[in-house]
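User: Can you recover a sequence for this backbone? Please restate the input before giving your answer.

Assistant: Of course. Working from this structure:
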C-alpha cells in the first residue's frame, strides 16, 4: 500500500514507501543523479573500485549504488586529487550513486587517540599522523563527490564495557550535531544534490540503542544508519538491538544497516524494516572460491567439481557467468588464475542483486513471510 500521499515531489532527496508486508517494505529513494529501489544492496568499493571488476561491470549487472571508503581514499590518492577528476564518479567512471562512510569504523579499529573534538590516527600506509573531526569528515566526503555521506561516529567494539558504549553514544550524538550543522551550511552553498545520514550506536545495550536513536533522529538527517552491529556478534545477538534501533527511526526516511550482506542476515533486517545494506561478504567469498547459489554456499575449489559441466548455479541462469562450468572455475582456482575471482565476484554480486529483487517482489505480493522462511532454511 502507498503510505505517503502528500509528498512534495520537488523535494530532493526524497524517500517514499511504495509497499509493505508486516514491517518489511519496498521503497524508492530519489536523488538527482539516480533513484534507488529499496531494499537495495551496495557493493563495497574500498579504494574506489570493487575488487577484480570495473564500474562498467557493475552497471551491466544492475548495481545502482556503490560504497566508497573515506579512510582509504583520503590517504591514497587523497580527496584533493579525486576532486580534480570530478569526484569518485569521474575518477572511476561511475554514473550512478556513491555512498561514502565517514572513515570512523576504520579509524577506531586502529585504537586512535580520541577526544571530544575528534580523533587522531596513524596512516596504515606510511605512518603519517592525521586528525579527523565531524566537520573534516563532511568536507572530505564533499570533495570525494559522495551522493550520500555518513556523519562521523564512534563505533565501540563488541564486547565492550558499558561505560565505553555510553561514551560512544554521547560522542556520536555530539559529533552528529556538529557534522549535520556543517553539512547543511555546505549544502546550502551549492551542494543541494547531496544527502547525509546519521548513525545509531549503542552496542548490544537495548537502553542505549533507544537513547541513541532518539538523539540522532532529533538532530534530523536525510536517512539513518544502524551502526556498531555485524561486527562479530551472533545473529541472535544482533536481532534485538537492530529491532530496537529501527523502532526509533522515522518511517519516511531510508534505513541503512552498515556491514551486513549474508542472505539470512539480510532477510532478518528486511523483516525489521531496513532498506539499505553493504558488505564485502559476497566479493570476499568469491575471491576465496565460494559461490552463492539457490542451494547455499558452494566451494568450487573442491575436487568433486573437477568434472562438473554444470553452471555455477544451475538455478540462476541469468548469472553473467553461467556460460562457464563449475569444472572450469575449479580448474582456474586450482592453478591460481586471477580470472576465477573475477568470474565469481560477478556471479556473487549478480546473485545478491537477484536475491534482493526477489525479496522486493515477495513484499509487493504479500509473500515475504514465506520468502523469509525459505531463506532461513537454506542460509540460517
Amino acid at each position: 500500500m502507498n503510505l505517503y500521499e502528500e509528498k512534495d515531489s520537488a523535494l530532493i532527496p526524497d524517500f517514499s514507501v511504495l509497499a509493505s508486508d508486516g514491517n518489511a517494505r519496498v521503497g524508492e529513494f530519489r536523488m538527482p543523479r539516480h533513484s534507488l529501489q529499496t531494499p537495495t544492496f551496495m557493493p563495497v568499493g574500498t579504494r574506489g573500485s570493487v575488487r577484480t571488476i570495473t564500474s562498467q561491470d557493475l552497471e551491466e549487472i544492475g548495481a545502482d549504488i556503490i560504497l566508497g571508503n573515506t579512510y582509504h581514499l583520503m590517504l591514497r590518492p587523497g580527496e584533493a586529487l579525486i576532486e580534480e577528476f570530478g569526484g569518485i564518479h569521474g575518477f572511476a567512471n561511475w554514473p550512478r550513486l556513491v555512498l561514502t562512510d565517514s572513515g570512523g569504523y576504520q579509524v577506531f579499529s586502529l585504537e586512535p587517540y580520541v577526544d571530544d573534538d575528534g580523533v587522531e590516527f596513524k596512516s596504515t600506509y606510511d605512518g603519517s599522523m592525521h586528525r579527523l573531526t565531524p566537520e573534516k569528515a563532511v568536507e572530505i566526503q564533499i570533495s570525494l563527490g559522495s551522493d550520500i555521506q555518513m556523519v562521523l561516529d564512534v563505533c565501540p567494539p563488541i564486547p565492550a564495557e558499558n561505560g565505553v558504549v555510553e561514551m560512544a553514544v554521547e560522542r556520536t550524538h555530539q559529533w552528529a550535531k556538529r557534522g549535520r550543522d556543517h553539512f547543511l551550511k555546505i549544502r546550502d552553498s551549492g551542494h543541494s544534490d547531496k544527502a547525509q545520514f546519521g548513525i545509531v550506536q549503542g552496542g548490544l545495550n537495548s537502553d542505549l540503542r533507544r537513547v541513541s536513536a532518539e538523539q540522532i533522529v532529533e538532530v534530523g538527517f536525510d536517512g539513518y544508519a544502524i551502526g556498531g552491529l555485524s561486527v562479530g556478534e551472533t545473529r541472535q545477538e544482533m536481532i534485538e538491538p537492530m529491532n530496537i534501533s529501527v523502532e526509533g527511526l522515522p518511517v519516511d526516511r531510508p534505513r541503512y544497516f552498515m556491514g551486513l550482506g549474508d542472505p539470512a542476515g539480510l532477510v532478518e533486517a528486511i523483516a525489521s524494516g531496513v532498506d539499505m545494506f553493504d558488505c564485502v561478504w559476497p566479493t570476499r567469498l568469491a575471491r576465496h572460491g565460494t559461490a552463492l547459489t539457490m542451494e547455499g554456499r558452494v566451494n568450487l575449489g573442491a575436487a568433486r567439481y573437477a568434472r562438473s559441466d554444470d553452471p555455477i548455479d544451475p538455478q540462476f541462469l541469468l548469472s553473467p557467468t553461467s556460460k562457464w562450468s563449475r569444472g572450469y572455475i575449479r580448474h582456474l582456482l586450482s592453478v591460481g588464475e586471477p580470472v576465477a575471482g573475477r568470474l565469481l565476484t560477478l556471479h556473487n554480486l549478480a546473485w545478491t542483486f537477484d536475491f534482493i529483487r526477489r525479496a522486493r517482489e515477495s513484499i509487493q505480493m504479500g509473500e515475504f513471510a514465506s520468502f523469509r522462511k525459505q531463506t532461513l532454511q537454506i542460509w540460517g
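That completes the design. Residues 285-379 form one domain.
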